[in-house]
Amino acid sequence: MTCSKCGKNIQNPKKFCPYCRNPLGEPVPPPPPSQRKTITWVIIGVVIIILFVVSLAMIGRKPVPPHDQASVATSTPATPEPTITSTPESTPAIIAKTLVESYTGMEFVLVKQGCFKMGDTFGDAGKEYEKPVRKVCITKDFYMGKYEVTQGQWMKVMGKNPSSFLSGDNYPVEQVSWNDTQQFISKLNARGEGKFRLPTEAEWEYACSWKEGGEKARFGTGEDTISPSTANFDASLDYKKPYSDVGEYRKKTTPVVSFKPNGLGLYDMSGNVWEWVADAYDKDTYKKLGENDPIYIGDSGSNRVIRGGSWNNNPNNLRCSNRNNNAPTDRNNNVGFRIVHGLPAEHVLSMDKTAVLTIRPDDCPARPFRPLKGRQKPPGHTGMVG
After folding, report:
1. What CA dihedral angle connects 84, 86, 90 and 91, to 10 degrees?
2. Rounded-to-integer distance, Cα 200 and Cα 343, Å
3. pLDDT, tens digit, 9 for 90 and up, residues 17-43
4. Does the predicted model carry a pTM greater than 0.90?
5. How far is residue 267's CA from residue 146's CA, in Å, rounded to a whole number?
6. For a surface tag, which of 35, 144, 243, 273 has the fewest beta carbons within 10 Å of its beta carbon?
7. Smallest Cα–Cα separation from 153: which of 111, 191, 207, 208?
8. Do 8 and 153 lie in a common domain?
9. Which residues form the domain of 22?
């Protein structure tokens, strides 16, 4: 027995170590042979279990490819990817079905790219400037204003209301020229929230005539017939058409969400006020332009296209394929506009640099109110649309 204090080997152990007088415990007898065997087998079992668990873990582990072994050996903590945000030099991806401009509250509806037959596919007008009917493709998605720009939205950006019908903030602004719309768009874009502009003539007709199933609707209501219960126009008996109903002639504008929208969710694409578009007017435009994202730029002083008809126009003027024009300086009480967000064609840059080169989505003397007749003007006419 060995003393735990001095380490001496004691042949005849007693209560105290004869060398250092350290108290000694009772000697521990060795375990019997049967117990020693049991302990041995327990140890062996534990070792086997440990080896089995380790082997299972190795089987479930994916091997490291040879070309990655070096990088694994010298790996460092991964740097998290930066969060991508909209800056004045980048545009967010168009993914949402609707878009809201935060300053004015203008709402926009996503219009998906696609192809359609542009022109008078119904054979209603017989006008050369609606022909030839041809295939046109809008190659990029864009957002279109859910309704015409309202008087409240105009005042928010421009400060004063030029409209003749001062009926409320949710009525369409009118008495604005094409040039005025460019000032509005420029100021809106200067706030840094998006690329806003006028729609092209092709975009406008594509959205106006959109119909479930790929067919083309005659009117911006999504239907092939029109009545005063579905749009604001001159529904007098004198202007009755096979595709229209006789009824109320309101003789003024109505709030922008007074009637049902078309299948895209767009209001007043037919009636209420004419709408300026980006294109210059030419009666032979359809013979000159190509298939993809067409736009006719013209000269700076060229007449500009207006679309959709108005509160004082007959049903023929409200057709989606109908084309008309005014001088870019004209202001009238039945002409307004709506805007779009997006950049469908690079050549739009040369048309309106201010509107499209700033990003993310003044006073104008007004003429006195003057009621206008609801007749279609001849193709070459440059004055107010009747």
Report:
1. 110
2. 11
3. 776 766 765 554 555 666 666 777 778
4. no
5. 6
6. 35
7. 191
8. no
9. 1-40
